[in-house]
Write a structure and sequence with these properties.
alpha+beta; Rossmann fold; OB fold (Dihydrolipoamide Acetyltransferase, E2P); four-stranded antiparallel sheet; 8 helices; about 35% strand; binds adenosine-5'-triphosphate; binds magnesium ion
């Protein structure tokens, strides 16, 4: 695995290892985040995303490795001296304080001496930035979930952190609000130039928000790169499975073909991997003409997704295969339940991990 460490970065991790008992929750993690960069962190549940953010913020002491912020080694520093802002999923606001006082808290209780009028000016500026003007005097029990989210964000940003860590802060919001918060986060990032490291359970969110994407798997980095690169060129079968847009088949290479339980598939793109598998995106499959590579499967059901329809098929040995039809390409085909179809794709659209 190539290390992702650059000079002059805002955050830099070198060989960071955190163990609980004899299990490594983080296993020699190295990467860096540059000034102004938005990095999304994705990975299955239990892969170490929260432990990683906690170790960066200083709430977990790593057994090995180093955390540096703007060139300074902070591995042994307590959280409040690291200059990092964080919003965790269960963002705890102070229930007895108003919106204004929640946001002003860090300014009043931080290391710097400042006048109350300066605190007031900066707090109002921040409330304006996150779109909460007019709600200053409300109690935090008198505002909505999305508004609480913004208070948590404003409270984090007001102290001008060098880096912001977000642990699924949009998870509790409805789809509409999530979308608005995404736009807001991007705007804030552009205005303030602060780098963000954002854990998200949503692949589409990671795609939309991140300049770069980290895929974490069992405490190690599976892949780190621009979203388009990760989606088009997943580094291994686990990344492909996790992205939720690839059909991934088990099997092995025999001569010029990748042989699965469903028959041989001609090989075009090969990627070196410790586990063999074959991956093809849902939206590359067709039943209209034989595109060169393919398999046969029985139609089960379809799901309407708004801008696309997902059709589900099943091979004789029970593997579900997904075909995504984008409605911008015209009306979907009608399939008959239980009937077997030939699903095919161009050989160059498949990735053989060998
Ligand atoms: N304090 C702890 N003691 C022991 N094990 C822990 C502790 N905290 C986390 N772990 C373990 O470390 C691993 C990584 O946990 P972590 O919370 O980082 O997962 P995650 O990627 O954030 O998952 P999720 O998406 O479910 O939030 C898990 O196996 C978890 O059980
Ligand atoms: Mg977590």
């Amino acid at each position: 695995m190539r290390a992702h460490v650059a000079e002059g970065s805002v955050l830099r991790l070198e060989q960071l290892t955190k163990r609980f008992g004899d299990r490594a929750a983080l296993d020699k993690i190295s990467f860096s985040v540059n000034s102004g960069e938005y990095v999304s962190l994705l990975g299955p549940s239990g892969s170490g995303k929260t432990v990683l953010l906690r170790a960066i913020a200083g709430f977990e002491a790593p057994e090995e490795g180093r955390v540096s912020i703007v060139g300074e080694d902070v591995t042994r520093k307590p959280p409040h001296l690291r200059g990092i802002g964080f919003v965790f999923q269960n963002f705890a606001l102070f229930p007895h304080l108003s919106v204004f006082d929640n946001v002003a808290f860090g300014l009043r209780n931080g290391g710097d001496k400042r006048t109350e009028s300066d605190t007031r000016r900066r707090t109002l500026e921040m409330l304006d930035l996150v779109g909460l003007n007019g709600l200053e005097t409300r109690g935090v029990h008198q505002i909505s979930g999305g508004q609480k989210q913004r208070v948590a964000l404003a409270r984090t940003l007001v102290i001008k952190p060098k880096l912001v860590l977000l642990d699924e802060p949009l998870g509790a919001l409805d789809a509409n609000l999530r979308m608005r918060m995404r736009v807001e986060l991007r705007r804030i990032r552009e205005r303030l130039g602060i780098p963000f490291l954002h854990v998200t359970g949503s692949e589409s969110e990671a795609l939309a928000m991140g300049d770069r994407l980290i895929v974490l798997d069992r405490g190690a980095i599976s892949q780190f790169g621009p979203p388009g690169e990760v989606y088009e060129h997943p580094a291994n079968p686990n990344v492909a499975k996790f992205l939720n847009c690839y059909n991934v088949f088990d099997g092995s290479v025999q001569g010029d073909a990748f042989v699965t339980n469903h028959g041989p598939i001609p090989l075009a793109r090969r990627v070196a991997s410790s586990t063999p598998a074959y991956a093809v995106r849902y939206d590359r499959l067709t039943t209209r003409a034989d595109a060169g590579a393919g398999l046969s499967a029985a139609y089960i059901a379809s799901e309407y997704l708004g801008s696309a329809i997902m059709h589900f098929f099943e091979t004789p040995d029970g593997k579900v295969v997904e075909l995504e039809h984008h409605l911008s390409n015209g009306p979907p085909d009608a399939y008959e339940a239980g009937r077997t179809y030939r699903l095919s794709w161009r050989p160059e659209d498949g990735i053989a991990f060998v």
